[in-house]
Amino acid sequence: MNRLMNKTAVITGAASGMGRATAELFAREGATVVVTDLNEELGSDVVAAITSKGGQARFWQLNVAREDDVARVYQEVGAEFGTIDILINCAGIIGVDKPTHELSEAEWDSLFAVDVKGVFFSTKHAVPYMIRQNAGSIVNFSSIYGLTGNEEFTAYHVAKGAVTMQTKQDAAVYGKYNIRVNSVHPSTVLTPLVEGIANAFPGGIVQYEKVNTANQSIRRLGVPLDVAYAVLYLASDESAWVTGVNLPIDGGFMAR
Ligand SMILES: NC(=O)c1ccc[n+]([C@@H]2O[C@H](COP(=O)([O-])OP(=O)(O)OC[C@H]3O[C@@H](n4cnc5c(N)ncnc54)[C@H](O)[C@@H]3O)[C@@H](O)[C@H]2O)c1
C-alpha cells in the first residue's frame, strides 16, 4: 500500500486508458498524483475517483505539445508540492495509418508534436526539480512499435522509436544525478486509443483480438493494469538500480 509514500508523481495523459490506471494505482500506493491531460472533464473525473477513496490528487489541464504550457504547469506543480519525484510520460496519440510515401508533412508533424516533443518538453521541465534533490524516476510510454516494425502506422512507429532512444539517452545523461529513466513497451492494450480501431475491424473486436495477439505467447489483449503495475515498479525505489531499460509488456510478443 505504501510503495510510493511521500512521492509526488506527475502523469501526462492521465485522464484515460493506461495513464488513468497508473494514476489510480499510484494513489493507492500513497503518491500525491498530479493528473494532467488535455481533457479537463475526464481528468477531473480521475481526481474525483482518487480523492473519493482517500487518495491525494490534483488536476492540471496540459497540452504536452506546447512548451509554454508544460513550463507553466510544472512551475505551478513545484510551487504547490515542492518538487517532482516521478514523471510518467504517458500522453500519446496514434495518428493516421499510412506508409511513408502517403504521409503528409502535417500528419507527421502533428503526431511528433505529441508523441516525441511531448516527452521532450515534459522531461526538460521536470528534470531540474530532480537534479536539485539528486533523485528522480521517469517512465516513458513507448510501444512494441518503438522496438520493431510492421505494416501499419508508420509515423507512430518512428515516433515511438524516438521515445525508446530518448529513454536510453536520458538514462545515460542523468544517472550522475541519480535520476533513472526507463520505458514501457506495451503491445495492444484495450483502451480508448484502440477501441475505435478494434470495433471497426472486420469481424469486430473478437477478430481484432485474434489477429492482434497471434504473435503473442499469452493470446489476449492487455488491460491497463497489466502495464500500470510495471510502471509502478519502475517509478518506485524498488527499481533503484534499474535505468535505461526498454521493458516490453506484451504477452510475449517480443520474445518471438
Ligand atoms: N493502447 C495501446 O494498445 C498502446 C500500445 C502501446 C503503447 N501505447 C501508448 O500508451 C500511452 C497511453 O495510451 P492509451 O492507450 O492509454 O491511450 P488513451 O487514448 O486511452 O489515453 C491517452 C490520453 O492522452 C491524452 N492526450 C492526447 N494528446 C495529448 C496532449 N497533446 N497533451 C496532453 N494529453 C494528451 C488524451 O486526452 C488521453 O486522455 C500512449 O503513449 C500510447 O501511444 C498504447
TrEMBL record:
Family matches, as InterPro entries: NAD(P)-bd_dom_sf, SDR_fam
Pfam name, any one: adh_short_C2
MF annotations from Gene Ontology: oxidoreductase activity
Record's keyword terms, sorted: Oxidoreductase
Domain of life assignment: Bacteria
Protein name: SDR family oxidoreductase
